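Hello,

Our lab assistant flagged a job as stuck in the queue for most of the afternoon. It eventually completed. Since we weren't sure the result was trustworthy after the delay, we are filing this so someone can double-check. Below is the sequence as submitted and the structure that was eventually returned. Let us know if re-running is recommended.
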Amino acid sequence: MYYTVRHLTKFRYASAVSESVMETRMHPRTDATQRCLNFHLSVSPRCRLFSYRDYLGNNIHHFDIPVAHEHLVIVTESLVEVQPAPETPARMAPEAWNELDALIRDEDCWEMLLPSQFATQTPALQELKEQLNVCRRDDPLTVLRQINDDLFRLIEYVQNSTRVNSPIEEALENRKGVCQDFAHIMIALVRSIGIPCRYVSGYVHQRKQDGDRSAANATHAWVEALLPHLGWVGFDPTNCRLAGERHIRTAIGRDYADVPPTKGIFRGRTASELTVAVRVSFSAEPPALDRELPIPEDWSTLVDKVAEQAPLSAAEHMHQQQQQQQ
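-- returned structure --
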């Protein structure tokens, strides 16, 4: 399966800023079941781009615009091939708990077992853990499937119901959140019983017949848990399903703090406005690689329909520029 991804991010400033420094994590990963065949990133105002790969294999681009500007536009275009993942069984044998512990001793995955900035152990989480009977029972896969289903059932998906820096208590208290909250809550629950779990940032191709709750015009987030004999298995609690052929991975980390699509700061004192639009298109055959990726006919309409947010103060800008996962 082949997917073309077009991702637009636009910052508009009430008055000119003198400099912007930013890094992006929008380049899809290449791994066992996914290949990024083509990637292009453009920035306006024009600037020199640099890139590197971090220790988890995430592709990161960064740039500096050292001249006055009133807007900053980032557009990425990707062509990704996704292969079907091996079928995940319904359950595992009870001795899989012992096999998991042996795997952890041999693998370098300790940071995916420890609390992180957004995936923390809190009183509200402990109450949920007891309510859902999250413990080392049955087998690891059965418990993970149950957590995935229970979070979908208990927490309502509501766009813009939390902020990028909201703690998990907010979603737990209100029983509503966005994909970022679902992922952080599941990670914290899973790590609490000794299963390595990591945050995945990316995109999901939506089809009407699948009934996804997540927003179509934003990036998406889900989790991956390490299991013996199966490796890292993806779970999407927002949509109550295993991550599969429609999920396109861009970055992995301990939680959202490690993998925001954009992260940066500007020099100046002014309000800013953020607009984000994402379009994921499917094709059975790969588009030609010697030409630009096709632009959907309704792309301009999609951008126009993105809900405009109130101007932000300079102090709020650093947090808001990261809030693209809904």
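-- support follow-up --
The delay was a queue issue, not a problem with the job. The result is valid. Residues 293-323 have pLDDT under 50 and may be disordered. The chain has seven helices and 15 strands.
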